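Figure S7 source data.
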Amino acid sequence: MLEVRDLHVNYGAIRALKGISFKVEKGTIVTLIGSNGAGKTTTLKAICGLVKARAGNIFLNGENITNKPTNEIVSRKTAMVPEGRRIFPNLTVYENLLVGAYQRNDKSGIKKDMEWIFSLFPVLKERMNQKGGTLSGGEQQMLAIGRALMSQPELLMLDEPSLGLAPIIVEELFEIIQKIHNEGKTILLIEQNAYAALSIAEYGYVLETGRIVLQGTGKELLTNEEVKRAYLGG
Ligand code: ATP
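Tokens for the predicted adenosine-5'-triphosphate complex:
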């Protein structure tokens, strides 16, 4: 579904990505893990056309989308939930979800998807008429994911959904991400929380200072000595 080949991105003299390659097959959940500054967000931004690839190619469903405008990429059944959530604090939960459906006009489909999202995140249903800004961090992350799902993406890309959340909330959130995947969505999960990400991912890549240094199934990486030492606290 998504293939990144030898991608290079620079910010002025800073080489943020030094030729990374990875694949996300349709129907799988793939994670890209790495510490702060490894280049994870830059990778997502390049896929979405928010930063320019200096070299390399990005293919979505076989089509070369490298350096295409963001709106063209988003209209190809992909959605990104950015780091830091960025929901609309002054809109209600319901209105925030509707924003995600702005390109659709199939009223009954929108209603059906809204019900689906409420079944995934019952707390959003309870808080339907509350302003987004009054939600807890975990609830805002759920809302951001729900909003992205309202655009009916086939590929959902999540940038550090666990950021700033308590471990118990991360656990709950990742169970829901797995459920979304089980219901047919392809997921690219960018994470610093290696344990949580590798626990639900079928395949993972480890990014260090702009290079992929390791890859394997989620299980393989969870038991890999290097990964354990560097990312799983020994
Ligand atoms: P984080 O966990 O902080 O999001 P990351 O793995 O997503 O980390 P990136 O944000 O992709 O890392 O950053 C990769 C490298 O590029 C870092 O060295 C960072 O300092 C640099 N960088 C990122 N954005 C910019 C920018 N707008 N201008 C200059 N350098 C940048």
